[in-house]
Amino acid sequence: FVVLETCRQILEHDIYYTLRRLTPLECMRLQGMPDWWLDGVKGSEAAKYKLAGNGMALPNVLYILEGINM
Fold first, then answer.
1. Cα separations in angstroms, 18 against 4, 27, 37
2. Handedness of CA 29, 50, 18, 7 (dihedral sign)
3. CA 18, 43, 26 angle in degrees (round to 5)?
4. What confidence tens digit (pLDDT) does each residue in 5-54 have?
């Protein structure tokens, strides 16, 4: 496949697929955080992506902590 950097499309077998970047809110949802988690966070979009990437998935943490409290 060929990646066209200018339009963020992938050409594979003569079919173009357009890629869409996840928003910081979507990244936080994937980590299990509530929607209000980013309210009031100042900084760039890159900082918000870093915040989501450096965190731990909340459902996984809760599962581990429940196992410890047995």
1. 10, 19, 29
2. positive
3. 40
4. 545 666 666 666 677 788 888 888 888 888 898 888 888 888 888 888 88
Give the closest residue to 26 by CA, choosing from 35, 17, 15.
35
End-to-end Cα, the chain, rounded Å: 50
CB neighbours of 1 closer than 8 A, spacing ≥ 6? 10, 11, 12
- Give the global pTM: 0.63
pLDDT digits (tens, 9 = 90+) for 35-45: 898 888 888 88
Going from the C-alpha of 20 to that of each of 26, 30, 44, 51, 68, the distances in angstroms are 12, 16, 19, 20, 39
